[in-house]
Amino acid sequence: MGAVILYSSIAAASAALGILPLISQRLFALRWVGWANALAAGLMLGAAYTLTVAGLDRAVLAGAAGALLGIGFIHVAHALSDTEDIELIDSAQSSTEHASKVFRRNALHAAPEGIAIGAAMAVNFTFGIFMALAMAVHNIPEGTALCEALRRRHQLLVGAAESVAANIPQVLLAVLTFAVVPTAPGLLPWALGFAAGTLVYLVMVDPLPEAYRQAGQTSIALVTSVAIGVVVLLNGLVVP
Amino acid sequence: MTLHPVLIVFFFGLFTALATGGGAVPFTFVRTVSARAVAHANGIASGLMLGASFGLLIEGSEHGIYQAVVGANLGVVFILLTQRYLAHRDFPFGSATGLWARRTLLMVLVMTIHSVAEGIAVGAAFAGERSLAVLITAAIAVHNIPEGLAISAVLRPRGASVAACAGWSIFSSLPQPLMAVPAFLFVEAFAPTLPYAMGFAAGAMVFMVFVELLPEAYDHSRKPIVGLLVGITLVGMMWFQRYL
């Protein structure tokens, strides 16, 4: 349990690193945010694959149904929270209103990401650490988006703090999932499927389209493909 | 009268190729040719191809993890070079021209190359026990249907007829009977190439999805729609592969 709290907290805290490209454009150009997004997209897709396989192996129907439930949940939640079709990094929209939307969207995403960490930890400790690492990489560009939205108001540090705060649901749900799932084994394939479905959906609506806007599509495709390959191959070593 | 074993292998390979044409059938009902229809179809094809690649990569790495990695990298480089080569040339593909023709040609090429691995798998299987080989071939044939679906999804909204979609789908699987026979006859020589071929196929398909299909999907559709289409087809494809 201590490990779950530790690793999900590290993932949540890494969102503060999102401030870096805004402090020094020369050292951390926007292209790097794009590549971080592409790396996150690849890691998350690979992780989603591993989660789905783990879910389907345990219960075919529950795994698939959980995945569809996850996709439906995040799609509806976006629509209900009015954060459906926004560009995360949008310098033309540097307003409190936009910042609040980005904050809500980040916090909303943090919930299923926490379930993913918790469910992965319940399957296998190494897999759980890997999942937390993938989420940490993903949280950095999310933090950049929030800092950017608050930049005109000279509230970069507030942005970094809020980025971390938006990830509190990640820690809470990681702990909750990890605590609840072992008590009801029937829940595990549902949780694994749910996490996998939301991860695929999240990749397709955030890191990937953002990445294409931040760097060339060939370099993005390269980074994403290599990241997927690495995860799928590690999969054989990490998950028995 | 009994058929020569080589003919049996060839006919089983041909059968899996014909199954690919079945993927064109659902597109009888799709007539619209619009940028948005293309974008949505790209989303569907992306989910199917990602699912297929994951399966290939896992299976390939069971035969040899380093060979699969090498193959996957070669697959990525191959698509990268082909894309660069085609970018400087203009040629028509059916009724399509320019960028659409390039994407269509690239799609048929990717799926055709990826069939080489499946052809080797069929041939290698028949070198073993016959009943198991028939089972493996049947599984590959069933998996070919969504692959035909992916090809048709890219071709049909760009104006290709259903017959043309089915034709190109079957064409893309012709390496299966053609590769199955030599793989069956010279199994000792071909079996070691299997993880390379599977890795190559996976690398080529994944890279195709991220460098061509998804950027175009985002240009002409909304992100939530792309998310839904890719998510549902990817989960569906993986469920399909696990269940059958």
Question: Could you explain the architecture of this structure?
Answer:
- The complex is a heterodimer of chains A (240) and B (244).
- With 240 residues, chain A is mainly alpha-helical.
- Chain A is 81% helix and 0% strand.
- Chain A has helices at 2-13, 20-23, 30-58, 60-80, 96-123, 125-151, 156-166, 168-180, 187-205, 207-214, 217-238.
- The model of chain A has no long low-confidence stretch (mean pLDDT 85).
- Chain B is mostly helical and 244 residues long.
- The A-B interface holds A 45, 49, 52-53, 56-57, 60, 63-64, 67-68, 71, 75, 78-79, 84-85, 193, 196-197, 200-202, 204-206, 208-209, 212, 217-218, 220-222, 224-226, 228-229, 232-233, 235-236 and B 50, 54, 57-58, 61-62, 65, 68-69, 72, 76, 80, 202-203, 206-207, 210-211, 214-215, 218, 222-224, 226-228, 230-232, 234-236, 238-239, 242-243.
Write the layout of secondary structure elements.
The complex is a heterodimer of chains A (240) and B (244).
Chain A: H1 2-13, H2 20-23, H3 30-58, H4 60-80, H5 96-123, H6 125-151, H7 156-166, H8 168-180, H9 187-205, H10 207-214, H11 217-238
Chain B: H1 5-21, H2 35-63, H3 65-87, H4 98-126, H5 130-155, H6 162-172, H7 175-185, H8 187-190, H9 194-220, H10 223-243
Helix pairs in contact in B: 1-5, 1-6, 1-7, 2-3, 2-5, 2-9, 2-10, 3-4, 3-9, 4-5, 4-6, 4-7, 4-9, 5-6
List SSEs of chain B in N-to-C order.
HHHHHHHHHH
Give me the count of strands of chain B: 0
Number of strands of chain A: 0
Distance between the termini of chain B: 33 Å
Cα Rg of chain A? 17 Å
Enumerate how many helices of chain A there are, as a single number: 11
Helical/strand content category of chain A = mainly alpha
Compose a concise summary of this entry.
The complex is a heterodimer of chains A (240) and B (244). Chain A is mainly alpha-helical and 240 residues long.
Name a few traits of the molecule:
heterodimer; A: mainly alpha; about 80% helix; globular; B: mainly alpha; about 0% strand
